[in-house]
Amino acid sequence: MKKILFSLLLASFVFGGDTLLIGAGAGYKKPVMAVIENLKKDGINVEAAFANIKQITVQAKEGKMALIIGDEAFLDKSGLDIKGYERIGKGTLALVSLKQIQDPKDIVKFSKIAIPDPKKAIYGIRATQYLKNANLQNELEGKILAVSTVPQVVAYVLNAEVDAGFINSTEAEARKSEFGSVIYVDESLYEPVFISAAKLHCSDEICAKFLDELKSERSKAIFAKFGLK
Question: What family classification does the UniProt entry report for this protein (predicted)?
Answer without folding.
Answer: Belongs to the bacterial solute-binding protein ModA family.
